[in-house]
Design a protein that fits this description.
Layout lengths: L8 E5 L10 E4 L17 E2 L7 H7 L6 H13 L6 H12 L2 E5 L8 H13 L7
Parallel strand pairs: 1-4, 2-3, 2-4
Helix pairs in contact: 1-2, 2-4
Length: about 130
Amino acid sequence: MRATPAVAVQLRRAYDAPAPDDGTRILIDRLWPRGLRKDGAHIDLWLKDLAPSTALRVWFGHAPERFAEFSQRYTAELDALPPDNPDLSKLRTALQAGRVTLLYAAHDPQINHARVLHAWIVSVHGFGAGTP
């Protein structure tokens, strides 16, 4: 079942202060962001299974020249998730409820896994693009 494309999915660094239009704030990193206190993070969900595998994350190392290959490999990992994956189910539920903000810890706002996940959500699940 596809949701209406009006649902916005946006990206924000986990270290950024919450905004009134964030909706459900979802951390999509496998590791908790360094230096971020859990009690003040304003994170509604932490979906580790939607992050790149540890091996892929280490291989990528945020090297810009590897981003294209990383994107392909990470998309393949996302495509391989079983439909009943608990984190994928939680993501679907959050998307059906309204606006979602995907939170990540990477320094570079353009070359990171959140961009790839955002594109995958829009293309595979048909949810609106929002403001990446």
